[in-house]
Specification:
Length: about 120
């Protein structure tokens, strides 16, 4: 029977300590349910058995949003995504930039040359 020699002793020998470090717990995949060896990290415990199940699981967790350009619903793992594709992002940005330029021209008033022509 194991009796610790000091308060924080958890293993009877270095061999038992090494064996405890090698043991990897089995866990069921959250997507397919297959058992797998869970390689746990303190910050991110394993949840899926393969990259394919990981992609499926992460996609299922991504919230649905409406694209600002076309209004179609889409899913993205990026928390601040606003567009369903790069093309819609570029089109929306170009339109907003052109609108800002038109408004800046209106605020600037007529060109200088027109002012000189009117004064003469």
């Amino acid at each position: 029977m194991f009796q610790p020699t000091h308060l924080d002793q958890k293993h009877c020998s270095t061999d038992c300590f090494a064996a405890s470090r090698v043991t990897v717990p089995m866990k069921d995949c959250e997507v397919c349910g297959d058992p797998f060896k869970a390689i746990n990290q303190a910050s991110r415990p394993s949840r899926w058995c393969s990259p394919a199940c990981s992609d499926t699981g992460r996609k299922a967790e991504a919230p649905w949003r409406a694209c600002l350009e076309c209004g179609e619903p889409f899913q993205s793992r990026v928390p601040h995504a606003s567009f369903c594709c790069k093309g819609h992002s570029g089109r929306y940005t170009k339109r907003a930039r052109d609108k800002a330029k038109r408004e800046a021209k209106k605020e600037a008033g007529p060109p200088i040359q027109k002012l000189f022509d009117e004064a003469a």
